[in-house]
Specification:
Blueprint (H helix, E strand, L loop, with lengths): L3 E7 L6 H9 L7 E7 L5 H6 L6 E5 L5 H10 L5 E4 L5 E2 L3 H11 L5 E9 L5 E5 L4 E4 L2 H7 L8 E4 H7 L10 H12 L2 E12 L2 H5 L4 H22 L7 H18 L3 H13 L5 H22 L2
Length: 305
């Protein structure tokens, strides 16, 4: 179980890709393969990958097919029993694969494990560490479905057998495809979380603004939970609550988070969607009014400083 394929999907990732690849190549447990999938890039992404020679397998998409399709192409290009995902703008600390392999050896029935994450600036300088709860081969499906606790893709190592049994990344989902895939794996397999920060997650302008359109967020939220409901029926797993109810809970959560983050415009979209769907409660109206007043007050203070 020590053999691990590394899959790095990359679209116009020229500024960051070399650092990601180097972090994969300098692991204390050497990967079986490092596979870079150039997803229709228009910059020098392919040339950067090719500069590593035989140490990197380059898979090319003639046009941009999206992140889930790129991940799937990379997974299919390998055959190792474990698959480690790494986004092209992130990087790993040197023991990431070694610790993941040890976790799979300790718990041979798990389908996925993930590590703690260090949030970094654009130059990959550490800002803060996100501490996730240590999990040892836990059945997390109900909790994951209801709370959507984070499992960052670059921190995750997957069992290939779990992907083959539960299904690959859903290529319809251009957002939330990782969360939906984790849900399917969690339906049939326990999951572990390693209590060590091993993944460096880069925050930069593109990563922050990508997917911030609230209408798009709502569309893929709904598609994700409907896909999960279909998978649960196929795999024989009972959902804690029906997908439609979970979608409404998610819309309320999105509204609260937007208000807390000062994004009044997005919060209005989430509130209006709840109203249009007949799910806007009196408590939601009060919460929105109070949150909106606070956002506007803060904006006024900033203007007069």
């Amino acid at each position: 179980m020590n053999e691990i394929d590394v899959v790095i999907p990359a679209h116009n990732a020229e500024p960051f890709l070399a650092e990601a690849v180097r972090s994969a190549l300098r692991q204390t447990l050497a990967p079986k393969r490092v596979i870079v999938v150039d997803d229709g890039s228009t910059d020098r992404t392919a040339e950067v990958a090719a500069s590593f020679g035989e140490r990197v397998i380059l898979v090319r998409h003639e046009r941009c097919r999206g992140l889930p399709a790129a991940r799937n192409s990379g997974i299919r290009a390998g055959d190792a029993p474990l698959v480690a995902l790494l986004d092209a703008d992130d990087a790993w600390l040197e023991r990431h694969l070694e610790r993941a392999a040890a976790e799979f050896a300790r718990h041979p029935h798990i389908g996925l494990c993930y590590a703690q994450v260090v949030d970094c600036d654009e130059n990959l300088r550490p800002i803060s560490t996100r501490k996730f709860r240590r999990r040892e081969a836990e059945d997390v499906f109900d909790e994951l479905y209801m709370s959507a606790f984070p499992i960052p893709p670059s921190a995750a190592v997957l069992r290939r057998e779990a992907l083959e049994r539960c299904g690959m990344f859903d290529e319809r989902l251009l957002k939330a495809q990782d969360f939906e895939c984790w849900l399917r794996i969690a339906m049939l397999y326990p999951i572990s979380c390693i209590d060590e920060p091993l993944c460096l997650r880069r925050n930069h302008a593109r990563s922050i603004t990508q997917g911030s359109d609230p209408e798009r967020v709502l569309h893929y939220d709904a598609l994700c939970f409907k896909a999960c409901e279909e998978a649960a029926a196929r795999l024989g797993r009972r959902l804690p609550i029906p997908a439609e109810r979970r979608i409404v809970i998610g819309r309320r959560r999105r509204m609260r988070e937007a208000l807390a983050g000062g994004d009044l415009e997005a919060a209005r979209v989430f509130r209006e969607t709840l109203r249009r769907e007949g799910a806007l409660r009196a408590a939601d109206r009060v919460r929105f009014a109070a949150g909106a007043a606070l956002v506007l007050a803060r904006r006024a203070v900033r203007r007069f400083r």
